[in-house]
């Protein structure tokens, strides 16, 4: 089984808006997104609640779906897709993470 080919087929089916393609995409890459968010939490010494992690993961998938999957359409096919997902997850999460409230 060629993972790169399977990923490409899954991405293409999302771009073509085939039935259940997006759900399969989310099921396939949710572990990558969640693990990346958890690693970011540890690296940044954040104390995100499970609801925060869930909100951030949903934000990643919502952003990927924006503008008819614009980010998926613009990605470089030569790059490993899972690595791309980690980078995109980090970028989106950094943009969506709520800073801790300051004590003043």
Question: Could you characterize the architecture of this molecule?
Answer:
The chain has 104 residues and is mostly helical. The protein has one domain (3-96): Rna Polymerase Sigma Factor, Chain: A (Orthogonal Bundle). The chain is 74% helix and 0% strand. The chain has 4 helices and no strands. α3 packs across α4. It starts with a helix and ends in an 8-residue tail after the last helix. Residues 99-104 have low confidence and may be disordered.
Keywords:
mainly alpha; 4 helices; 0% strand; 74% helix; disordered C terminus; globular; Rna Polymerase Sigma Factor, Chain: A
**CATH architecture heading:** Orthogonal Bundle
- Low-pLDDT segments, ≥5 res: 99-104
Mean pLDDT: 89
Query: Would you give the CATH topology?
Result: Rna Polymerase Sigma Factor, Chain: A
In angstroms, what is the radius of gyration?
A: 15 Å
SSE topology string: HHHH
Distance between the termini: 56 Å
| Proportion of helical residues | over 70%
- Class by alpha and beta content: mainly alpha
- Spatial shape: globular
Number of helices: 4
Task: Report strand %.
Answer: under 5%
CATH class: Mainly Alpha
């Amino acid at each position: 089984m060629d993972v790169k080919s399977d990923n490409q087929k899954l991405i293409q089916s999302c771009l073509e808006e085939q039935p259940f393609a997006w759900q399969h995409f989310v099921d396939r890459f949710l572990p990558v997104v969640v693990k990346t968010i958890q690693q970011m939490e540890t690296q940044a010494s954040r104390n995100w609640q499970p609801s925060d992690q869930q909100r951030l993961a949903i934000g990643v998938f919502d952003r990927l779906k924006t503008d008819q999957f614009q980010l998926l359409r613009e990605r470089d096919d030569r790059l490993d897709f899972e690595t791309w997902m980690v980078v995109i997850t980090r970028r989106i999460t950094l943009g969506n993470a709520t800073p801790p409230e300051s004590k003043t």
